[in-house]
Amino acid sequence: MKIHLVSGGCGFVGRNMTRRLLKATNDKVFIIDDLSIGTHPSNWMENFTSRKYKDVEIIGQDERLYFWQGDFRNFLFRFRENPRFVQDNYGLDFERFCDVFHFAAIVGGRLKIEGDPMAVALDLSIDAEFFYWVCRHKPERVLYPSSSAAYPVNLQSESHAIALGEGDIDFKGNLGTPDMTYGWSKLTGEFLAQIAARHYGVSVVCIRPFSGYGEDQDLSYPVPAIAARAARRENPFEVWGTGKQGRDFVHIDDIIDLIFILMANVRDGSGWNIGSGKLTSFLDLIELFCDIAGYKANIKPLLDKPVGVHSRYCKMDLVKEKFGWEPKISLREGMTRVYNAAVERLKKEGKL
Ligand SMILES: NC(=O)c1ccc[n+]([C@@H]2O[C@H](COP(=O)([O-])OP(=O)(O)OC[C@H]3O[C@@H](n4cnc5c(N)ncnc54)[C@H](O)[C@@H]3O)[C@@H](O)[C@H]2O)c1
User: What is the tens place of the pLDDT at every residue in 208-235?
Assistant: First the structure.
């Protein structure tokens, strides 16, 4: 029996991955989440049914989804007492986890990254416990989500922004300064991933997603928040900063496609970009959403809001050359999906 582990399985990327694993395989999936940000599977699993068994919930008619609610570190500590604690407690017959996807992290948007950097620094503790466990448990394959925030911020300024390539993080050369404690923790995580691969023989790949978005993303992120405001025909349309700052937007379905390709091909802990390779400013994004909504808006800059680096986008040449991968979902198509989801949600809430 194959069983996969998804930490942070109730968060944005985690729940999309969990649904994909359940759909694309017949395997079991064990998810961990403390629900500090993520939401209970009853909110995002179709035809939700569950039964309680000890301290897990077994979900779905076919009982392939297991949910352990709590701090991922506490879950990992249990392995120190008994390396077979999952098998012994939950009657699951397997040798080791097959694919392990580690999405449990304190992420948040710009407000969190700049407003409470020491809370975000707790990711260092989550990741250190994770890699310590990985090197003992030896899952078949491991996915570590780093981030575009690991790239040096001086390559993302108004005057010096470049399309960031994988080689712009060079552990043997000059690393540069990443973005706040969030970027530092991701850079450290990548370093630990390489150690896990080289010193402990674990198959690990790191991804550096740029601005991932999707229909069910939390409203604290700019894309769904802007979509909802366009659906309500905001005018003047508020933008954080001047709106000239730009990001590289990539749809969650494309991210997940590429994760599977990378896990099948990369074992050495190296980091790979996941983006569209295109820079889109927030002004362009607002224009696109207003166009989808069918109106034109005046822009109202909110200059006291945190905006982060000026331009963050990537080169996707290496991924294209090695694996032939390109995103399937265009910006307009993806944003239209997000817009339609926002309309549905607002209607349900009686706000439209
Ligand atoms: N979404 C993106 O575009 C993007 C971009 C770059 C990197 N990433 C990385 O991907 C991963 C997932 O991101 P996301 O967007 O899904 O974030 P998210 O906040 O939606 O999900 C993280 C999940 O982890 C849970 N969590 C936090 N601390 C925990 C703990 N100690 N124990 C158990 N659960 C805990 C939260 O409740 C949440 O459900 C993160 O590592 C993030 O840095 C995401």
Answer: 999 999 999 988 889 999 999 999 999 9
* 3-state per-residue secondary structure call for 142-209: EEEECCHHHCCHHHCCCCCCCEECHHHCCCCCCCCCCCHHHHHHHHHHHHHHHHHHHHHCCCEEEEEE
CATH code of the domain containing 92:
3.40.50.720
How much is the pTM? 0.97
Is the C-beta atom of 13 inside 6 A of ligand 1?
A: yes
CB 142 within 8 A of CB 102: yes
- DSSP string covering 259-320, please? HHHHHHH--EEEEEEES-S--EEHHHHHHHHHHHHT----EEEETTS----SEEEE--HHHH
Q: Give, using CA atoms, the residue closest to atom 31 of ligand 1.
A: 71
What is the extent of the structural domain holding 333?
222-245+280-348
Q: How many domains, in total, are found in the chain?
A: 2
The Å distance, Cα 10 to ligand 1 centre, comes to 9
